[in-house]
Amino acid sequence: MKRSYLKLLIDIVMAVAVIMLMEPHVTGLRAHELGGLLIFVVFLVHALLNWKWIACMTGQFFTKLPMKSRVNYCLDALLAMGFFLIALSGMAIAKTIDFTWLPLPGNMMFWRMLHGSAALLTFTAAGIHVGLHWKWVLCHCKKRNQEVVHA
Ligand code: HEM
Ligand code: HEM
């Protein structure tokens, strides 16, 4: 499979998964908690597939860089932090998986509020992230379509 198709497939999986994770009452709590943990493996693959870009931008961040790349870099860092907070708070409030062995301070109310608000803010940031790559998505969807038609 071509690298760009793998990227596209992973992007679609992440987008659908995150939308479903925003509705725990629809998926059920067990699926929400398991899916919420599993999606991090997918995020990791997504980041690894873009590793060259991350390394290059990290090295050049404080030198001359186009504004768009800077904005993308900051948004990517925010997304990584946001999803990390969601996972941490999710483990603190988990009901179907036992995370009581994790030494997490603070009360349930704090973690629950953090989970809900981090999810909302990060979901919005993910929407902007996809929006900023929309041309890439459309271009690769079209390319894929043409290859299927000509095959
Ligand atoms: C809902 C989840 C997400 C979706 C739907 C999504 C979608 C996309 C798309 C469509 C692209 C351009 C094509 C590609 O390289 O795959 C992209 C690039 C990228 N994404 Fe994500 N992404 C998500 C989450 C994340 C997270 C959590 C991170 C942070 C670790 C991240 C980091 C990056 C990076 C570093 C790039 C390439 C550089 C750039 O921002 O231009 N993405 N993403
Ligand atoms: C990307 C990952 C995740 C997203 C986007 C997400 C999103 C959400 C949202 C939007 C809610 C509803 C919050 C509210 O009603 O105020 C919620 C509730 C919850 N989430 Fe997550 N979550 C994720 C991962 C996790 C993980 C990894 C766990 C645990 C291992 C978890 C455990 C819970 C629990 C226990 C609730 C409360 C459900 C209830 O009692 O109504 N979540 N999550």
UniProtKB/TrEMBL annotation:
Residues annotated as domain Flavinylation-associated cytochrome: 75-134
Protein's name in the database: Flavinylation-associated cytochrome domain-containing protein
Positions in coiled-coil regions: none
Keywords assigned by UniProt, alphabetized: Membrane, Transmembrane, Transmembrane helix
Family matches, as InterPro entries: DUF4405 (IPR025517)
Membrane-crossing residue ranges in chain numbering: 5-22, 34-53, 73-94, 114-134
Domain of life from the UniProt record: Bacteria
Highest classification ranks of the organism: Bacteria, Candidatus Moduliflexota, Candidatus Moduliflexia, Candidatus Moduliflexales, Candidatus Moduliflexaceae
